[in-house]
Queue: 4 jobs
Job 1
Amino acid sequence: MSPRPSGRKITAAGSALLLATTLAACTPNPSPEVAVRSFLLAWQDGDHAAAARYTDGDPEEVERSLVEMREQLDLASLRFGLGPISRDDKENATAEFSAHADLGIGDPTWDYTGRMPLAWGPDGWRITWSPSVLHPDLSDDERLAVSYETQERGQILDRSGQPLVTADRVTAFGVIPADMEDRETGVTELAELLEEDPAPLLNRVRSAPPEQFQPLVLMRDSSVNQGLLADIRRIPGADVQEVEINLTPQVAPFLLGEVAGTAEHRVSSRVPGPYQAGDTVGLSGLQNIFQHELAGSATTQVVTLDADGEITGVLEAWEGERSGVIETTLDVGVQRAAENALTGMPGNGYLVAVDTTNGEILAAANASDDTADDGALTGSYKPGGTFGMVAALAALETGAATPTSEVPCVPSVEIGGQTFTNPSGGSLSFDPNLVRNIAFSCNVGFAGLGEEVGADALAESALRLGIGQDWQLAVPASAGEIEIGDDEVELASAMIGEHGVRVSPLSMALAAATVADGTPHAPLLVRGDAPSAGEGGAPSEADLQIIRQGLREAVVQRMPELTIGVGEGEVYGQAVRTEQGETALHWFVGYQGNVAFAVLAEVEPAQTMMAQYGVMAAQSFLSGMAQGLPEVPADAPLEEADLNAVEETGW
């Protein structure tokens, strides 16, 4: 016969139940503390059958209740601490315990204090079983669940507040858990039809209120066919809903980025943050970088449900963060003009435009339509003769040339055993000063100044125009780099943008902006970001005026198409052709008013003939900003007059 309990009051310290206790007694549960500790240890370890044996309830019912709680909350882990135990009398006691419930990846942890009554019986002390042992506020006809209230995805805006992302109609595939015959089988079948991993989908379904539709996979309507819908609806409890989500970028897809559901593209297992199956996640660009701000986070609640699946109480709630908007410096009109200007390129191409007064990026476009193609910002290219503005500045700053000194521009020159020639093989027969060398992109003239300028001075002048600056942008970007040795051949080659000089279209647009405004500015794309401070100081106004004269004369003398029909304000710029590997690079770098821009076209060398694709794109870009976009589709065939104008180059 079991010994009678003593009448002493027992108090157990709130120690964590992470180590088993060695018990020595002839009675299975000789004290309330032993019974409670043993029950909590078995429950914590997931040995629900063993835990049930420490209660006075039906073992199968208790075991089922413990298992269902773990599934209803989709628990990753459950930890307990033993609290005080009070004797009501010789045969009854009440124990408190602390519970630490981890609700899973991305979800909060739920801490609460539980209580359980105990009674003395033939087998010693046992827990008096009822659902309130799971949680004090849980009644006999209630169950637990986790409810999520998700946020509407935020918007990305241009500089004037115009939305840049289209709200698309999306099909949400999901289930109503209460209507499913077998949740695991049904969700797995749904996942197989959608070619998704069933695990994250099951996690959400297990812990969800059973009467509520649970969206699990989002799919654009264009990807949904009637056959798939019919197959889905044959699964008991599966259903679809139509929703609108800000998904598709209207412009600059590589910059704004793609959006998917967490199950789509297999991203659910690698997305950081509090996201569930069926939520939206940015995969690239600003959508990815500002995922938290755009998606916000769900309000999560641990709730009690009645037999009909209706919420009867909220046991704990974690308020989510509201989604917001991202304000960019982009100008949707300038961006559209940039994208339109790149249509019809025989190869790839880029155009970046910035505000000369502050470095804000107005447009960034590619011709490839590839959302992963960010070469406009990150590319590494030879600038060729467009580097003449840097070479001229270095020559002026070192005294290698003055505004009035002669800078010979003959057809060719030999430096260190290497022959340098002008692009057209021509020369300047009269007044070959620095301005005219810039205007006519005289490689021979600039190459001849290299040794007197020196590597350090050339790099410092490039830095003053923003090339090689150590600035940071919200998205990956390159400021270019200058790596020049003191060898006379390398110096001569660097002066004409060939050796040791690499730039991105963004860095060249910023260089043109510095020439226009007189003050170097780091680029800015997202409002609120602090632009990096410039290095090296500003060039002198007198030196910049010489460069401006050269760039204006280049347009007037060599690019008359940029003097009419391109809006108000004179156009300044330089256009060159150079080669990098097996590709011909056509550059135009310049500015008009407060807009500085760089165009780069990558084409097959054999395709170039007489056309200068950088200039053609520049003309289209400026016309697009001034007059608006053409009413015909951007990919419409060119008129015969247009074909003649480009001399049948295939553009």
Job 2
Amino acid sequence: MSGGTFSLLIIGGYGAFGGRLARLLGEEPRLRLLIAGRSLEKADDFVFDLRSPKGGAGRLGSNDLGAWLQAVTFDRDGDLREQLTRLRPDLVVDASGPFQSFTGDGYKVVRACIELGIDYADLADSSGFVAGISGLDAEAKAKGTFVLSGLSSLPALSFAALEAMAPHFSRVDSVAAGIAPSAHVRIGLNVVRAIASYAGRPVALLHEGQPAKGRGLIDEMRVTIAPPDVAPLASRTFLLVDAPDLALLPGRFAGLQSTFTGVDTEPQALQRLLRFAARLVEVGLLPSLTPFARALQAASHRFASGAHRGGMFVRLGGLDRDGRRLTADWSLIAEGDDGPFIPVLGVELLVRRLLEGRRPESGARPAAGELSLADFEAAFRQFSIASGIRLDYQEEAQPLYRRILGEAWEKLPPALAAIHAGGTRLASGRARIERGSGLLARLIAGLIGFPAAGEDVPVAVRFAADGEREIWTRSFGSKTFRSWQAEGTGRERHLLAEVFGPFRVRLALVPEGQKLRLVVRGWRFCGIPLPLFLAPGGDTYEEERDGRFHFHVEIGGRLTGLVVRYSGWLVLE
């Protein structure tokens, strides 16, 4: 670092990940960003775009408005010593890849950096590359440089989440992690090539405590990504991928029994096709999926559908400090285009630490455990990203809403927590009721037993525990109707399932300030799944107001219009 300017060379600087890293750091005036790749033309085009004013923002690249930006050529197969000596970076970040395809001396860039006393970090997602980086530890320490490999979602962020959950355990038996990008994210070609390289191939993991071989993009695990504070993603099937965590986890937990890392591809039809193709590789009918990487990338872009949301999970299973069976889930959901920034947040955090004079210890090692979950959570605040931890004690009975909400339960206002505290209880109050006037709305209201319209109607609700269910008996004046609620299972995991007569509605519990919103995520009639866009909806929530529990329930749909709307307050008897 000379003259107060820190020089950062990003190999693959105009690619999917390197470009996002440059955008995150582009406003930092203490940086000299070298956007590097084999094509100077592409690097120039990227720098021009990054410097262009957007939405009234200032121009990047000047002394007072942002980083110094420079497009440069860099060829990892060229004279590395000459290129690095000429560019004089303080830190090299390799954001290119795919690291699985590096042949010969795959560490030649790393070795050149160490030889010249240049610090190095990368976004490697290859288990072999990341685990093998420690072989350069002595050389890096001798030169006083640091080398951090895998400073990405897997393993840097996954291990940060793992370390945050580990103190709850006396013994960890299983670890699983997975990433579910939004279907609308334009996945980079190198990422697709990396995934295609091990489709149908053996992937080293742990099974029943022994080293075993899984099947890439064939073995699967179903997970519902559900941070405590937001509506969960739909249940996803994750296919096994070769990630650094699989090589690093056995060294972290003695006696670990099983490991899994996976990826979900949307839409599900495309994922099923990918799994079928991986089976063809497994049985020898296809040599590899790598030649089809470009076609797979195009298909993922062409057939994108569904909500523009992505996610990630890390799950630990084992025994807690009191010997009880415990499953801990850390989940993350990113909205819109924010998800693709997650893999580069670790490097952004590293660079900002270096600018503050906080330097990692010298030596070469995987980046697992280098950053804490609190570090990442601070970086999440610049995006629409929600994350959190759920603890599930299998032998401990908990109230229904507490099981579903996880750690978000602690944030509920006291009046809401008291209503949902479990057991048999009775609450009473007053309500205002509106009814829809349409024929279909009246038929549905009559079928379920909703009350007639009225003002200041006496209301009483009896909550009764029935095994894993709660039966809610609501009385509005002389009219009574009943429903039952339970925690969803399988595809409905972390959702509330409520049954009114022949209707079964899946609801996400979403805390929002002093309110708890109930958001419809699916429904069935007589067990038959129905389209979500026709589902009963409306603004439904609970809240604490003046120390009292208040409710507001709307039920209606595109076909029916308003069926019923009732709002009011309750106090526990």
Job 3
Amino acid sequence: MPRTNDRWIWSRGKMLDGHRFDDDSNKSYTMPADIFHTNFDNGDTGLIAQVVEKFLAHHYQYEAPRIAELQRYYLGDNDIHYWRNDKKYLNRADNRVASGFPKFITNMRVGYMMGKPIKMQWSDDSETKPAIVDAIEEFNRANDETYHEKVMKTNLSVTGRAYELMYTEQPTKNEDGSLNTAKVKMKAVDPLTAFVVYDTSIEAKPLFGVRYYLVDYDDAGTQGYYVDVYTATTIYHYYAGENPTNADMKLVGTDNSGFGVEPLTEYANNEDRTGDWESKLDEIDAYDKALSEMANSEEDFANAKFVINGDIDADMEAIMGPDGKPLLDDDGNPMMVPKIDAKDPYLFIKPSIIPDANGNTVVPASAEYLTKQMNEAGWKLYIERLAADIHKDTNTPDTSDQNFGGNNSGVAMAYKLFGQDQEMSMQKSLFSRGVMRRLRMLNYYWYQNGEAGISADDANNFKINYTPNLPNNDSEIVQELQTLSNTGLFSERTLREFGASVTGVSADAEEQRIDDEQANEQQGQFDPTALQGVNSADLEEANRKALQNLQQQGQQPPMSPTDFLMNAQRSDNNAK
């Protein structure tokens, strides 16, 4: 059976060989809700195991091989590495060159959509920021949410689906012995080892989730597959043995869920749950094969056979046998061969004269390598055509294209990214569904645990926004910002949010900075109230004494603004 290190061999060697995946390799699992409740509601772990075993065996046998193959391609282990041919038996070059299209396309998609963190904006009009906003921000910081989203998007791009598990840590104790609310954590789960089962209603509500994993520790008592079953109230831990397709699961333990719904969320890349480049695997294989054959031709040319017509013009020497004596031909004469030193840079040949009944036949002397003619221009055109089709059909811009550069206008760049933007609009909607489910689970958990200031439906007031990660032309943005400001139609906060892409400072932080600067300026201003109630005669006497002190020290008293201007004008006239 497949183990940890050889799980990738389930789908190898099918390069350009017809149908690639089984018809059941991308099936969405469903079951009637009443059957689910019959088997799950009473907590009978035996009945639960029987239901899970059926789905587990199907996933391991049909769905996991497809996911494993797509993951192989992303890691550069393309099917060209398992291409079946007889080149080695014919003593010919057999290079296997795998292209990096899958990783390039995925990284472009992930960077474009998730290169800049997604924003979970509170859409309520309330002036004060509610407690759940601070709670979500702290949760995101503690779980490195920006990196988590990139991992989820990578899984989506590669396999067409991604899984996110919400779970809680052990609660901590206060000094008085009371328990704090356990912190919530989230983790991206490998799509190769997880699935969710839905009911058969039009809404397709999730019933339970499954995660299974292989423990291959060097101990006979721990080897095998472990299965975690997640429901809205309980998490069941099972041991399934060494073969998930014929499992007889044994209960290991249970835990409370605490989120009100099963905590394993399935994200979909599109309605078909396919990867971004899955439909172009044939073209990727053809591209790999073309590159490999080109490398083979170059190597075969370097190792081509050297053909000589005619006789070698060199001294002859006898062929010696193992006993050190010359070998003899049928007539008893020593067998002679040209005496050639392999280190010589050249070889002399002459026409060969073959006697026959009609006289002598002269074979002209020639020497050449035995090679086949390469159509390099046609080969180059074929490879470029394959690459162009892969870029076009996956809506991935070709950054090596000479027309794809930083000197293009924003409108030109928008047209180049038009196809990718249209496809990504659906992907953003599907991704937002998963994020909103995460927020609602957090909201439910905190509300049920009595966190201060959190209402039951706060999560519904969040809005998920995405910012494409593209090179910015800061000068154009600043000009547009100034134009918008001059219209007087936009608020200061809107303008700050628009300018955040240039400054890197959020609208909230910028507003706080402005408030701080204004407060500091007010502290440094002269306060006229300090002179209120001062006698004018006393103020005049103080000024007289100050001037007298300056004169005694040999310093000129400060000029009034009028005297300063008049003095400046006299200086200008003298200069003229």
Job 4
Amino acid sequence: MDLLVAPELLAGLDHLLAGVGFQRVAALGHGSHRFYFRYVPDEDLWIKLDIVSDIRFGKFQELRTPLAAGCLRRRVALGPLWLPEARDQAWLQLLHLVLDKGEIAADRIPAARSAATVASAGDPVATYLDGKLGEGTAQNLLDMLNSGNFSDVPAAAARIRTQWTDPALPPRLIRMVNSALRRVGPRLKGRGPVVGVLAPDGAGKTTLLNGLRSHCPLPSAYVYMGLWSSSPHDRWLQKIPGGFLTRKVIRIFRSGLLARYQSVRGRVVLLDRLALDTLLPGSQSASPWGAATDALARRFQPRPDLVLILDAPGDLMFARKGEHSPQKLEEWRNAYLELAEQIPTSSILDAGQPASAVRRKASALLWDIISRSGPERVAGGDPLPLHLWMLLDWRFLLPVAKPERLGYGGRISSDAVAALNLLDPAARRIRAGDRPDEFDVVLLSEPDTGVFRDAVASLRPGGWMCIQVRRTFRPGPGPNTLAGWKQALARSGFEDVAVYWHVPSLERPARFVPTSSSSAVRDTLAHYSSVRFGKAKAAAGRLALNLGLFNIAAAEGTVVGRRAPEADYEESA
């Protein structure tokens, strides 16, 4: 899925998408492209987001344009989606085919014809092309496509690339730099996870690893860790004293270094066989040198983040490969199952299932490792946004369906910040000196008077403020009760000030109770009188309500208010 976003949203994008389970794969040399992936185990589905903040063309994004801002400004809503306006969409499709691909393949001809019938020479993108490359460029391109002369596209694309100039960065230089950077290859953030597979011959180790590598779109590397596999040089090595032992040591260092290198490069490392094989009964070397090299292999091998142990009956493994005997394979099968108990990161997979089912289960285990170890993991560990959306329930207390500019301050947790970014990706913490009229809605959590004063100054007239409050009896720089914050808002010129009692807690309220409604408060007190000490608390609450002190007695809640429109505000001031 390709997405265009405004540049100012990029700062919080990684954290925002991590909150809904996506992991970023960094890829140099792709312009403003940012790639995010997520695996959905229930559907065996990989989702890839390709997000850009500008619009460029060419194989190496060397043809820069200023078109992004206009396309975002002219975007249109289709249900819950925002799409480019139809004419922009048509021109972007055509330029992608002509300039990025350099030709229009047979299977893309229907799409090109459809786009050419929608586009016209008077569209904004066409006007830019004419200004960039000369009057009539857009019309000539449309004429060529509408007439079906698709064989002329490569020459037209080459001509446009030659004429394209950029005073800041020449396209040829951008192409050379991006081409070189792409050689680095994509990478996960941080160290890539190491996954090993253990099983007797015939269980499907190679089939599983090949399936993982071909199905998983993340950058990966296959490393064979076998120490004793035969080679064409064996007949020469047997004539050299210690030749096979020397080869074993070389393989230990070569495979270990290669696996570590690929992990440092941010790739998923898939290990075929592990040095842990040497722990199996009957696999220990009899000679001191052999035992020493076995220990060296176990020591130098990268520690696997996940060990997949394939379990299949001995007769099935024999039928698949025809090596050893069913009885011997069954013995090894039981030995591997015992070894699994000694490996904390091991998972046993039923290798008697179809290969696709085994690969699907392994993909889910691999993704669990990647998502738990990702550096942008949202606090709390839950990859789903439900718990974050629950932290936004305060928005139902306001008449504003969706704020355009959201500010926050006070004791806002990292989970709450992630939730605010779901509501407004550009949401940011209020700072002293923010310009007036900066925000439409401000959320404060247990603020002091300094934060409150800065928030009032940054809120536009007519904007709404939400203050989350916990009652406290400790002296501090600000009101200590819901009643105190209600008065603070009123003194600052706010209108429509209301107080809501949160039950049972501020973070996870089951009810927002307007304290101005005596019947709502009484009903809630009666409902919760069955909890521990509930009757005593309910009696105290009813007494405070009768005395008009409930806003002082309520433990937790939210105070909301609307800053007076400019004229009213100046009048009250």
